[in-house]
Structures are given as C-alpha cells and as structure tokens.
Amino acid sequence: MEFVMIGSGARMKPECLITAAFSQEGIELLESLVQIRLGGWGVTRRKLTPEEMISEIGGARIVITELDPVDANVLAAHPNLLVVGCCRGNPVNVDVAAATRLGIPILYTPGRNAVSVAEMTIALMISAARNLLKASSSLMAGQWGVDGLSPYLAFRGIELNSRVVGLVGFGAVGREVAARLVPFGVRLLVYDPYVAQDVLERYGAESVSLEELCQRADFISVHCKVTQETKGLISRKHFDMMKPGAYFINTARAAITDEEALIEALRDRRIAGAALDVFGQEPLDPSSPLLRLDNVTLTPHIGGATHDVVRHHSQIIAEDIIRYLRGERPRYVANPEVLVERE
User: How is the beta sheet containing 219-222 ordered, strand by strand?
Assistant: First the structure.
C-alpha cells in the first residue's frame, strides 16, 4: 500500500476528484494539500454510471463521492487510488470489501445529518399531533367556515407535553431527537439493545423492550439502521399493540417496518396517524394506498436535505483526508484494517 505524506518539500500535490455536493469551506481546507477537480453528481445533479465514473476519475488519486458509484469495477480500473471519501452516514455506494483487498481506505461521515433528521422528526411529530398539514390545505382551499369555529374543532390536536415518546434506536439521530424532546416535558422510552445505561440516564430515558415501547408510547419514532437484525423489526403484531391514539413517525428507513401492516393500521384507525419521510418504494408509487389516507403526513425523503448537511460532511471528509495525507489516523474509516500497515 502506498503511503503519501504531504508536508514541506513534499512531492506534487495529488489530484482529488470531488463528485459530492461540497462546501467552499471544505474545498479551501483541502486545496493546500491536493489539486481539486469537480465533476459528477455534485456538478450536474445526475448520478454517474460505474463506466462513467471510471472515465471521470481519470488520473485522480483521491475521490470524494456521495451518490456516484465506486464499485469493484471502478476500483479495479483505479487500483492506485490513495483514499476514497464517501459523504454518507454509511458508504453504501462504495464496495468496501473490494477497496480493502486493494488496500484503499474508505472514509465516511457518520452523523453528518443527525441534527437535520432530528429536527425533521420533531417537525413531523408536531405536524401529526396538531393536524398542521390538513389545516393548511383546508385554509388554502378557502374552507375556514362562516363562524370561524369549524377548524378549531376539526383540527383540534394534542400537546407533546406529558406524552410518552418511544424511540426505536438511540444512535446519533435518536440522541439528537431526545435532546430536543426533553424541553417539551415528554417521558422518553428507548428500545436499543446496544446502548449503555449511563447514556440513557443523560436524557432521562427509560430502557424498555420493543413490545413495551409500542404498548406505552403516544409517539413511536424510528431511528435505527437497516441491518439483518432490524429489517422488518416493527411488524404487524407491534402495530396491533399500539394505542388507538398513537402516532408513528419514520425518518429512518422503510425496511425497518412492515409497510403493509402500517397501512392497514392507519386505514382501520387502529392508530391515530403517521408521519413518514421514507417508503418501501422511492419515489412513492402514485398508486400507493398511503396517498389515499387522511391520517398521514408524507414527505419525499428530505430528512437530511439541508444546506448544513453539505457543510457538515464536507468538513468531516476534508479533515480526515488531511489527517490521512499527513500520516495521521482518520476518525471515520469503514475498513480500518488497511491502516495497520501504516502504523
């Protein structure tokens, strides 16, 4: 594995291709050590094919991607890459195993959108509780009513204060959600078999089983990753356990839930409502039953869609690439075993 240290008197700067959306601050951090070239999705907003990515990389020794693929064929065509940075919470568009075989470290950006998704979760929770979407649509359609009392009665909602909120998963996003919920005066339940008790205590949260969480919570919000263990985690039996007045929020991944069972629970009014930012099929099929329900708030997977997320992931990747080029250990490496040779 080649090790390049950049410093005074160092060799020519390596070329760095950035196909991710990237902040100017991130570019300025990097350009003292590398020659930067922009391309791919970050410029055109069109995802490259693997064949196009092979051509786009050209002579670059460093690649920073977000959506554009760095699969086994791309890596095989460019085995001399020094490092690949992926501006994602998980480097899902990079073949990490193939990179490991070639000794190429893969850097990524966990927590880049934790605040963004957490704030979106709170917004959806309040929107569902206060019927904001239906109230807004009604007003824009001129349906206030003659006496002015109709919407007051029709859109009467509930407060978060004193309600029980159950968080399924307590990683970076779950903790950011909890921190924002504490001032609302809610009681927090958490289902996460891997979180330490002292972490829960910091937020005044109670550790419970998934079944107990579903039975007790007024709001159930999903914040875990999709793994073999979590795929289909929230099933029909869990929706059957929920209170008739419960609201279900999902800003994580649709695969964690049985979407058909959720639709049935909503259609049969076995739960009060749901707010969803993720779906089993994206874009959402125009024939989806979800679009015909009046007790859902639906958004098109925009939980992480803030300009601040671009700033966050740019800084994380830029700082870690700088660490790597200077011979230091990066913070977030998907395949840390490739670094052993350097240490």
Answer: 205-207, 187-191, 164-168, 219-222, 247-250, 273-276, 296-298
The reply to whether 15-112+306-342 and 114-298 are identical in fold is yes
Is 112 annotated in the active site? no
Would you say 222 and 278 are in contact if contact means Cβ atoms under 8 Å apart?
no
Active-site position among 101, 187, 270, 301: 301
Nearest of 173, 256, 170 to residue 207 by alpha carbon: 170
| CATH fold for the domain made of 114-298 | Rossmann fold (3.40.50)
In contact, 85 and 63? CB cutoff 8 Å:
yes
Interatomic CA distance for residues 12 and 69, integer angstroms: 27
**Domain boundaries of the chain, sorted by first residue:** 15-112+306-342, 114-298
| N-term to C-term CA, the chain | 12
The residue from 25, 31, 51, 282 that is catalytic is 282
CATH of domain 15-112+306-342: 3.40.50.720
Report the b/e string of 85-96 with b at 16+ CB within 10 A. Answer: bbbbbebebbbb
* Contact between 144 and 195 (Cβ < 8 Å): no
- Cα 336 from Cα 59, distance rounded (Å): 25
Which residue among the candidates 253, 259, 312, 313 is catalytic per the annotation?
253
Q: pLDDT of 243-269, one tens digit each?
A: 999 999 999 999 999 999 999 999 999
Model confidence pLDDT, tens digit, residues 53-70: 999 999 999 999 999 999
CA proximity to 98, closest of 341, 334, 340, 342: 334
Q: What is the pLDDT of residues 168-191, one digit of tens each?
A: 999 999 999 999 999 999 999 999
> In this structure, what token pair is assigned to residue 215?
């039975």
88 is catalytic: no
- Picking from 6, 55, 56, 10, the residue whose alpha carbon sits closest to that of residue 33 is 6
Is 301 designated active site? yes
Q: Are 176 and 163 in contact (CB under 8 A)?
A: no
CA distances from 269 to 25, 211, 240 (A): 49, 20, 11
Cα angle value 309/300/119 (rounded, 5°): 45
